Amino acid sequence: MAEASRRGTGLLLLLLLAALTTAVAARFFMRLLGANGWGVVDVLLLLLFGILYFWISLGFWTATFGFARRWIAGRGPAGRAVRTVPPGGEPPLPPTAILMPIHNEDPHRVFANLRAIRASLNATGHAEAFHIFVLSDTRDPEIWAEEECALARMRATPEGRDLFYRRRVENVDRKSGNIQDFCERWGARYRYMVVLDADSLMTGGSLVEMVRRMEDDPDVGILQVPPVLVNRDSLLGRILQFSSALYGSIFRTGFSLWARGEGNYWGHNAILRIEPFIRHCGLPHLPGQPPWGGEILSHDFVEAALMLRAGWKVVVAADLGGSYEECPSTLIDFAKRDERWSRGNLQHLPLTVASEMHPTSRFHLGVGILSYLASPLWALFMLLCLVQGIGWSFAPRGGDADVEAVPAAAALAPLAGALTLLLLVKVWSLLAAMWQPERASRFGTPGQLTASVLLETAASFVLAPILMAFHTTFVINTLLGRKVEWEAQDRGEKDVSHAETFRVHAPHTIAGLAAAILVFLGPGGLFWWTLPILFGLVFSVPISLLLGSAAVGRRLRAAGLLLIPEEIAPPSILRLQRGFLAEETAHRAAVHPFVRLVADPVVLRLHLDLLPNPFPAATEPAVRTRLQRIALAGGPRRLTRAERLLLMQDAEALQWLHREVWKDWPVELLHKAAAGPRAA
Amino acid sequence: MEATSRIDRSSPADEAVARVRAYLRGLGLPADRAQAEAAAVVGRCEALNGAGADLTDAALADVMARWNAWLEELCRTFGSAAECSPGLLAWCVRPALAEDPNLFLRRESLGEVAAALRRAVGTSARPALPEPAPTSMPVQSFGPAPSFLQLGYWRGLVARAVSVERSVARRLRGG
To answer: How many CB atoms neighbour CB A462 within 10 A?
Structure first.
C-alpha cells in the first residue's frame, strides 16, 4: 500500500520541476515579448515557448534524476544487477515463451540472433524453462521459404531445442495481432512471454533474471529491459549507438526512478505476465477511419496502459543490461522508421483523454505524441519569431516600451537556457562516466570520450533541423490522412543510394535555400541567428550521405571515436551472434528460393509439413493450372510475388510442379537447386 | 529461368538416369551410390514398361514414391504424429544419408535405421508447433472519448453559433 501511494509521486515531482523551470524561462521570454506590447503573435509565441520548454525540461529532469541516482548510489553501469545462479540450488523456473514476431525480415539475421540467445541460455542451466516461438507474418514468398530452411537448420543444431515456428495465413492486426494469436493458441501453456523484435538480442543471464524478478514480485505485469543499440558501422548508426550508451544510460536510470511501477513498455526486450495480459490487453480497433481509427499501430504503450489500468505494475529495469537491438544505418531509413512511429504515436491522441485511462499512462502517451509534434511546434515557433523579428525591425524606435530597451541578457536568456538544459544532459552523462574510470575506459580514453561527446553534439545540431523537417512532414501527412506503408525495417548495413538521397532531401534543400535568401534580404542580424538551422537544411544531401557512410564510421572507430562499451569489450552474445550470422549467410540459396522449394525434395517436404492442413484459402483450379504452367515454362520470375505466394500456399500445385520440373527443367539447374547436405 | 528446355542426351535411358541420379543426390545420397541406384531404377522401369514408355517419368515416380513411403514409415517408428514431422525429419536425415546411403537404400533394416537416426536426430524432428491450449483475449475499451473530440460536437457548436448570429442579425434588422 505504501508502495502504491509512493507511485505517482515521482511523476508529480518531475512535472513540478519541469513546470518551475519553464516558468522561470517564460518570465524572461515574456519580458522580451512584452517590450513592444502584446499582440496575437506574442501570445502564440509564449504558448509555444511554454510547451517546448516544458518538453525540454522533462528530458533534462529525467536525466538529472538518473545522474543524481548514480551519484548517490554510486551504481555501476547496466549489467551489474544480474544475480549469479548457484547450480542446482534453485527451483526450476516457470515455463516461459520467447516470442520473435517477424514480418519480411532477413531470416538469416533472425535465426542467427535466436541461436545466440539460445546458446547463451544453454549456458545458464535454465534452458529447459524457455521455449522459442518464431511467429511469422511474412508475406514475401521467398523470405517465407528461407525462414523454413533456417528453422530446419537451427533445429539440427545444439541451439535448436524447443524452437517452434508458425506462419499466419492472414496478417490480422500486424504485430499485436500476431502476439494475440500466440496468446490465444499457446499462451495458457506458459506463465511468461518475452517479446523480442527481429533485431533483438538478450543474454541468457538477463532472461533468467527477468523471470526471477517476475517471480519475486507477483504484482509486476510487464518488466521492460531497455535495449542498448549495437552492431552499426555507419556514422549515423555509431552516433545513435554512442548516444544510447552514454546519455541513454542516465535517461533510463532517471526514468525508472520516477516511474517506479508505472513505467512503460517499448514493444520488445520485455517480459510479460501472460495471464493478465490475456485478460486485460486485447486491443480494440479505434473508431473511425485511418490514420486515427482502425487497428492500433503502436500497440506497446497502449498495452502498458491497459496493464496499469488493471492494477499491474509496469517496471523498467534500467539496471539489468544484457539487452540489445540495432538501429537504422542511414538517415533515410531512420526517417522511414520515424514516419511509422509518428503515425502510431499520433494515433494515441484520443486515448490521452479517454475516460478509462491511468493518469501516468496519459503522460506516457502524451510524451510519445510530443516526440513528433514537437517538431512542427518548433518550426511554427521559429516562423513566428521570424515574423516578430521582421515586425520589430520596422517598428518605430525610441519609445518607452521599445525592444531595444530589453537588456541583451534578458533577450538571450530563454535561448541560452534551452541550450543549457540540452547540453547539461550531455555533461551529466560525461561526468557520470568519468567519475568511474572503469566505466569511462569502456568508451575509450578520457580524451576520446570527450571528443566523441563534442562530435556527437555537433552532429546533433546539424541533424536537428533535418529531423524537424522530416517530423513536420510526417505530422502534416498524418493530419491530412495520407497513407503510409508499415513495412519491415531495413536492418542491415547498406550503401546509401545517391538518387534516393537527392529525391528525399530535395525539399529540405529548397526550403533551406529559400529561407536563407529571405532572411538574408530581411532585417540585419536575423541571417546569423538562423544560420545553424539553415545550414542543416541547405546541406541536407551531403549530410545525409555522410551520415550513412560506413567507411566514415569505421574510420572514426579506428580513431577511437564514438566507441561504445560493446565494441571495446564485446559481450559473448554479440560474438556468438556474429559467428552464427556468418554461418547462416553461407547458406543463402544458390538459386531462386522458389526454384529450390519446388525442386528440392527435402525443402518441399518441409514446406508441405509446415503448411496448415487444410489450407484455409483454396486456389481456384483454373488459376492454379495457369500459374503452374507459367512457373514450369518460365520459372518464378514470370510470376508476380502474389502469384508465387498463391502457389506456395497450394500443396497440390507444388507437388505437381515438383514432379514436372524434375522431368522438364535442365538437370544442372535441378542439381544446383537440390544441393542437399553440400549446401543445406 | 531462361533455359528450361530438355537437355539432349544420347538416349531416353541416359536422360532418365541423369535425372534420377540428380534427384537421389538431392535426397543426400553420395554421387557413386546415386549413379548406381539411378541406373538400377531406370533398368527396372525399362524392363517393366518396355522401351517405348516414358522412362524418366516412370523412374522419377518410382524414386519419389519410395522416398515418401520410407520417410512416412521412418517417422512412424519415431513415434506419434505429435513427436515427428516428416519434413523436419527429412531435413535431419539428409546428412545421415550422405554418410550412409544404406539407411535409405536397404529398406529391410528400417527398425535399426530408426534407432540409429533417433539418436542422431534427437528432438530436431519434433513438429514445428506444440499442442495448442486455446483461450481467448477479450477486447478492451477505453471508455467514451470526450465530446470535444467528436465531430458532432463541433458541428453542433458551429450550428449554434450560426443560429445565434442569425438571430442577432434578425433583431438588429428588426430594431
So the answer is: 18
